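User: Sequence in, structure out. Go.
Assistant: Echoing your sequence, followed by the structure tokens.
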Amino acid sequence: MFIRGTTLKKNAKSFIPFAAIATILLISYILQKVPKTYGSDDSLNVYQKFQAGQPIQYLVVGDSIGRGSGAENPNLTWFKQLENKMNDVNDIPLHGDYVVQSGSTAFEGLFKLSQRKKHDHKDLIFIVFGENDRKYMKVDDFIMTYEALIRKVKRLHPNAELFTITESSLKYEEFASAIELLSKHYRATNVDMRPIFQTSGYTEKQLTKDLIHPNGLGYQFYANAIYEQFLDNTKQEKPIASLPSKLHAGSKLDLSEVDNYEKMIGFRPRGDYFTSNEKGSLIEYNFKGSILGVKLLRSPDGGEVAVFIDGNEITSLNTWWPFARERYLFITNGLSPGSHTVRFEVTGRTMASDLTTLPYVRISSIITDDINHY
């Protein structure tokens, strides 16, 4: 009995180190398999996080290309291909957030960003505008709104790196040059997709869905270009984008709504909008500010509305769209200090050739800046 007990004690002693080693190995294995969380060290910038193998959180502020329109499926958008590349090659997860809208401009991006109630920490921010902006504004207006957007982004996320994307479809050189100029001033990384598409060996038709929006192959070039530039920035120990003094004196940061109208004829409240399909109907707002936009609904039965400021017709807006969507449209900039009146007047015209009823105009409010904010 004594001999047997001794043997058991010896076996127990030899088993303890083995069990401890096995436990350590098991814990190590489990820790390796636990997915990386998004509570990583936010004191590190995006390049330091990349080198440390930590997750990266990004934000896209952009238009239809910003949201990946044209891709054959969601996994072929440029940001999903970028996520997959980072994860597969570097074992680093990217988590995205999006302030995007098809057909939008930098003005709309600025307003939508200003309206967000929650701004979680972001390491990396992409700004994707230009193609639509050239349709609605002059280059000086674009510089003002694009710079205001950069400054808003950096105020909300001071430790974030900034990538500006010059879209492959942008044919207006002055708008591309404006993006490059502002990127250099703010030490942002500009990725110009135009020469990359031109030297890709593929035709524009092969790389796009409709000669504007890239397809999955086109977005692969976007993802690869961004990824390679990111690696080069990391290697060069690039400082993140900064917030120096303004280039454009009118680059305000604050946009707000004015929903109290001064005069209304023919328009009627319908849900969230003042609505009319009667030619000559009008609604007027008083405001103080140098920039003006409007919040309205674009829809398949949308019509045209003429815009008058202080009695002078300055433009007309088309509210037709193939599906209903609330939009925030730029009207003008550079108004003199002081009080102004804007009048929206229904013209009765529409772009919808198959519309059998009179087109509707639906207006919610105007958007302007605070003249006291400089």
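User: And one key feature?
Assistant: The radius of gyration is 27 Å.
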